[in-house]
Design brief:
Layout: H1 3-32, E1 35-37, H2 39-43, E2 53-59, E3 65-66, E4 70-76, E5 81-87, E6 99-106, E7 112-119, H3 128-145
Parallel strand pairs: 1-2, 5-7
Antiparallel strand pairs: 2-4, 2-6, 3-4, 4-5, 6-7
């Protein structure tokens, strides 16, 4: 084998190894990627059915139902509502009427089954995605209530 052929095979093997490593990195990144959806987007069917995602909004007043260790509540953006089922301990700052982000999947009954629930950490914080979704829902609600002048 000539030195030129050896160099060619060395470069070819290096490129193949780099491509395989890039494929592994991209696959790991894709499997850990979690998207955020508002209750309105989930209601419209824009959220994935068999994939982990986050939903955020406000916990609806009077919707919290606690069992022995099972909890149900409704997340709303004041335009649409999504029922959330969670098994585990809630954060100390979790309250009705406050902001929440839950991570999980939609089950066969159309109910969101959360694996993790996050509550806002102070009076001023709201996740940017949740704030944007709430603002968009408020604009849509305002547009529906405004009547054109004849």
């Amino acid at each position: 084998m000539t030195p030129r052929q050896k160099r060619f095979w060395f470069i070819t093997c290096g490129i193949v190894v780099l491509c395989i490593a890039a494929a592994f990195v991209l696959n790991a990144f894709q499997s850990n990627l979690v998207f955020f959806f508002s209750p309105s987007q989930v209601f419209k069917g824009e959220a994935p059915k068999n994939r982990l995602f986050r939903i955020g909004g406000m916990v609806k007043e009077g919707s919290l139902k606690k069992g022995s260790d099972e909890i149900e509540f409704i997340v709303t953006d004041f335009s649409s509502e999504v029922s959330v089922h969670y098994t585990g301990l809630l954060p100390d700052l979790f309250k009705e009427g406050k902001g929440v982000v839950a991570q999980g999947r939609i089950n066969e009954q159309g109910q969101f089954t959360a694996t993790e629930v996050l509550a806002k950490h102070d009076e001023n914080y709201m996740p940017p995605e949740a704030k944007s979704a709430m603002d968009k829902a408020a604009i849509e609600r305002a547009a529906k209530t405004v009547k054109p002048n004849p």
